[in-house]
Each structure stands twice: as C-alpha cells, then as structure tokens.
Amino acid sequence: MPVSGLSVNPECVSAFNELKLGRGGPKYIIYKISDDQKEIVVDEIGKESDYDTFREKLISKKEKSGKDRPSYAIYDVEFELEGGEGKRSKIAFITYINQDATGVKSRMVYASSRETLKNALNGIAMNWQANDPGELEWADLLKEASKGKGTI
C-alpha cells in the first residue's frame, strides 16, 4: 500500500498510456482523489489542444464545500524550438493546490499522495507545482519544458 494510503485506479494508468501514444489521443488528463478518499481517479480527459482551455478547467474544479479543489494533471507540452530546430513534446505532471482557496485537509491529502500517482505513471518528463492560478501560465510552462529554447 502506498505511503499516503491511497491507491491509483487502473484507469489513471490506461489514460496516461493513451496520451503517451499521441496520434489523436488525449492532450491532457485531470486526476482527483475520490470522494471516499480511497483512490486517485481520472476526473477528466480532454483532446483540446488549447492550453488556456485546459488551465481554466484545472483551476475551476471545486470541492463540495465550494472551495477550490486541488488536482493532479498530465499535459502534453508541445513546442517549437527556436532557430527552426523542429517540434518537441514533453509530458508534464502538474500538481495544482491553490494555497489560498483550498482547505487544509485537502492540501495535506493531495500533497502526501502526489508521489503515489507519479510513481504509477512511467514516462513523465517534467514536474510542475502550482500554488495559485498565476503559476500556471503557458509561458512559464513552456520555458521549463523547453529549457528556455521554445517559442510561443
């Protein structure tokens, strides 16, 4: 059993493997902790390639109490290298926990369970932690994924 006590639903890994294959599959996956707090499950799978659409969906998730709900996400970051060196793609694991608008218990559960999900997903190229919506800007994610060599 994982340190956090949560398990990873097999659909989480299946969806991730489909994203890794590309070819018209998902562009992003948003994960959540189940309502019974026993496992990490797929919340939403999207094929939209617009980062702003994904970002808005990620930051708009709410708990039953109305507070912001933390989430994990996988996003296929595609970018063009400067100087015409071609296109690249990196799979980013994103942890979004809005420190100002999320309950303490949710923050703790999501923070302690992050590694459980990451360890179940083979092929993650980069990790991104965001503690407020402003830390989810495309330019920052692109800079990290491309090591500063990508163009918008």
TrEMBL record:
The keyword Ribonucleoprotein does not apply. One of its GO terms (biological process) is actin filament depolymerization. Keywords: Actin-binding. GO terms for molecular function: actin binding. It is found in: Nucleus matrix. Residues 5-146 form the ADF-H domain. Coiled coil: none annotated. One of its GO terms (cellular component) is nuclear matrix. Belongs to the actin-binding proteins ADF family. This is Cofilin. It comes from Knufia peltigerae. The lineage of its organism: Eukaryota, Fungi, Dikarya, Ascomycota, Pezizomycotina.
